[in-house]
Amino acid sequence: MDLLRDKSKAAEGGFLDDQFLIAMPGMKDNRFARSVIYVCAHSDEGAMGLIINQTQQMLFPDLLVQLGIMDEQEAIRLPAPARDFVVRNGGPVDRSRGFVLHSGDYRVESSLNVSDEVCLTATVDILRAISTGRGPRRALMALGYSGWGAGQLESEIAQNGWLTCPATPELLFDPDIDSKYDRILAAIGIDIAHLSSAAGHA
After folding, report:
1. Across 76-135, where does the E strand assignment appear?
2. Which domains does the chain have, with CATH numbers?
3. What is the pTM assigned to this prediction?
4. How many Cβ atoms sit within 10 Å of the Cβ of residue 73?
5. Mean pLDDT for the chain?
């Protein structure tokens, strides 16, 4: 996770920071089929992002209990927004680690600015805040992340593995996970029915 540390030191982000990566239909890696990834950090040394349209089996209250943030009795009494908070599959790397993308109205010392409107926090403080209704106005949580080494993501894009487009907080945070892939393609004017694995990127 050196990329995130580097990002916290650098004023200028990489050219794919705050972008969506949209898997092309010909994606060979099944773990990323029909996935949308939000790029949190990108530099010459590689890239890191979170899949935003795959859910985990684990429920947020169960995660809080597993992390020792609260006991089962407290978890049962969580307010509905926390109880229904969806845990997503952020990617195949370090799947026991949690990351929260959120609006900029909540910040702790460890929060990193991905854009003017989106922050990333990877500490349990934010989970406690969400569980008590003191968290950010908008947030999504993922376990695990997606990572690329130096030049790897650029190569995959050049080989038509991914489309790229600027992210919007509306599409990032909206709760309709199942249709997100198609809606993001539609937002950049692409009909999935006409998309082939030979297409260029937007």
Report:
1. 87-89, 93-103, 112-113, 118-121
2. 2-194 (3.40.1740.10)
3. 0.89
4. 8
5. 89
